[in-house]
Amino acid sequence: MTETPAPGQTAPAAAEAPNNRTEVFAVHGADPEVLAYAMAKYSRSSLSMRESLKEISSQRAEQFLNTFYFQYGHRSIADLAHVAFAVERLSLLAAIVLVDEQRWDGQERSTRYQNFRKSGWYLPEFGADLASAQLYVETVENLFAQYHTVFEGVFASLREQVRKPEEMKQETYDRTLKARAFDVARYLLPLATNTSLGQIVNARTLETQVSRLLSHPAAEVRQLGEKLQAAASGAAWNVHGADLAALQREIAALDPALGERAAALLAREVKTAPTLVKYAAVNDYQTRTRAELQQAAAELLSDEVIDAAPLVDLVDDAEALEVEIATTLLYGACHYPYRQIRRHVAALSEARRNEVIHLGMRHRGRHDELLREFSSGQALRFDILMDIGGFRDMHRHRRCVQVLQAFTPQHGYAIPEGVEEAGALGLYEETMRSAQAASVRLAGGTAPEAPESAKYVLPLATRVRALFKMDFAEALYISELRSAPQGHFSYRRVAWEMYRAVQRTHPALAQYFRATDADAPIDLLQR
To answer: Is 263 exposed, middle or buried (0-12, 13-18, 19+ CB in 10 A)?
Structure first.
C-alpha cells in the first residue's frame, strides 16, 4: 500500500525511506588482507561487502594498505585481518615468549594431559664450548629420565591411594590418575622441552609479536620471529590442497581446456599477510631500553640480597603514579620483589626518579607502543612468586597487565604434592639441585648467548616472579576460576592466596568471591 503525502508535504527521498532489512552473513574464502581492505572500505565507500569483495584484488589491497596503513598510520585496519598459524616443535621457553601478547588467542600442547618424554628438546648453539654442550645434554637427558621415573612412581602411588569406583571404567580411571601423575612429573620438564601450539591473531598483533621476537636475546626466539614473518609473507598451506589437485586431474582428463583453467586457479598462492608484516623488524626501542633499565636496576639495588617474599603479595598501598611506573620499569629488569624495589624508588629524589622513567621513554620511535610497564594505575597489584609450570596457566589471563621477570635459579624451586607420598622426594630434590647448578655453570660459559642458553635447563619447578596488575572484576574472575577443584594444585594455591589477600585489605568486597579453599580435600578422580 502506498501512502499519499499530506497537503504541503513531499514524499521522503529514496535515501531517507525506511529500510528495515538488516542482513548478516558469514564470509570465507577471501585472503585476510583482501578481507581487511573490504571491511575498511565501509568507512570510505557505500558498497556492500559482496560488492567490495567482487571488485578487490590482492594487488589493490596491497596498494591500499601501503597507503593507509604505513603512510597514514591507520593501524586499526590490521585488526581486521586474522591469520591462523601452527607453530610446532618450539621450546617451552620460546612458547612462553611467543604467547606473551595481551591480544592473543591460541592453544598449546598441555603438559598436564600429555606425555612429553618423547617430544624432543631444543639444543642451543654452543660453538667451541664443548664442555658446556656436554653439560647441557647430560642435564636435559637426566631431567627427562627422572620425569619418567617420577611419573611412574606417582601413578603407582595414586593407584594405591585412590580406589576405582565400581561404576567407573578402568580406562577412565587410569586416564584420570595418569593426568594427576603428569601434574606432578611435569615439574621436571626443562624449558628446552619441545611443544606445539596454534594461534589465531590479527595482523597488528602479529606485526608487534614478530618485532618483539626479533628483538629477544635468545637465538631460538629471534629465529621464530623470522619464521613467523616468512609464514605470513609466503604461501599458506591449503587444507584442501591435495583433494583439489586430484579433482583438477580428473577435470583435465575429461576436458583439457577446463583442466588448464582449474590448474591456473590452483597455482595461485594465498599469502595471509604479506603487506602488513613486511616492515616488522628488530625494535630498537625495546632492546636499548631493556639494557639501560637492567643497568639502572643493578646500580640502584647494588647486588643486595633479595628479600624473602610470600607466594602472593597484594601491593595496594597508596603511592604516587610516578613511583609505580618507575618501580615497574625496574621490576621487569631484575629479580627483586616489587616492595623491595619500591622502597628504593620512593627514597629517590624526584629528579632521579624521573630519570628512571625517562629511560623507559628516551628511545621510543614515532610508531612504537609504550612498554607494557607503563600500563599503571590499576588498584590491585599482585607480586607472585610461583613455579614456571603453574605460571604458564596464569599467563593465559589477558585482561590484566603482566610483567614477567627473567628465568633464574635464584628463587629456588617448588616441590609438588605427591612426590613425597610416592617416595621420590630425595630423587626429585637431587635432580632439581643438579639442574639449577648446571644452569649457573652454563651461564658462566664461553658459548654465544651463554646466559640465555643456561635458562633452557631450568625445570618447570623453578620459581619465577611476575607482577599481575588488574581491576576488581579480573581479580574475582581469576580467584574463582583458578581455585576450582579440577585445577592444578599450584595455581589453585595462588588463586586462593589472591582471594585471601583481597579479604585482608578489602573485606567488604571479599564476600562476593566464590573461591574454593585450596586446603579443602578434593576428589582426585574429578577432572
So the answer is: middle
Give the span between the Cα atoms of 419 and 436, in whole angstroms: 19
Q: Is residue 134 part of a domain?
A: yes
Which of residues 346, 365, 384 is at a domain's end? Answer: 365
Residues 107 and 176 in one domain: yes
Query: In this structure, are 134 and 148 located in the same domain?
Result: yes
Give the integer Cα–Cα distance in Å for 272 and 281: 18
The C-alpha cell at 126 is 654452543
Residues in CB range of 125: below 8 A, 6 or more apart: 219, 447, 448, 449
Dihedral of the alpha carbons of 291, 294, 300, 302, in degrees to the nearest 10: -120
207, 297: one domain: no
Beta-bridged to residue 271, according to DSSP, are: 235
What's the one-letter identity of residue 210? V
C-alpha span between 508 and 205 (Å, rounded) = 39
Question: Do 140 and 121 meet the contact criterion of CB atoms below 8 Å apart?
Answer: yes
* Residue 46 exposure: Cα atoms within 13 Å on the Cβ side: 1
Count other C-beta atoms under 10 Å from residue 323's C-beta.
18
- Is the residue at 240 inside a domain? no
Same domain, 104 and 231: yes
pLDDT band at 6 (very low <50, low <70, confident <90, very high): low
Kindly state the average pLDDT of the residues 279-288: 91
In this prediction, residues 269-280 reach a mean pLDDT of 71
Looking at the fold, whether 102 and 59 belong to one and the same domain comes out as no
H-helix segments, 302-337: 321-331
The model's confidence at residue 62, banded by pLDDT at 50, 70 and 90, is low
Give the global pTM: 0.87
- Classify the phi-psi angles of 449: left when phi > 0, otherwise alpha if psi is within -120 to 50, otherwise beta: left
What residues pair up with 87 in beta bridges, in sequence order?
197
- The candidate with the shortest Cα–Cα distance to 332, out of 302, 355, 359, is 359
What is the residue whose three cell numbers read 560488492? 51
- Strand ranges inside 287-363, DSSP E: 312-314
Containing structural domain, residue 180:
84-235+414-455
* pLDDT on residue 2: 47
Could you tell me the CA-to-CA distances from 109 to 112, 115, 199 in Å, in that order? 9, 10, 12
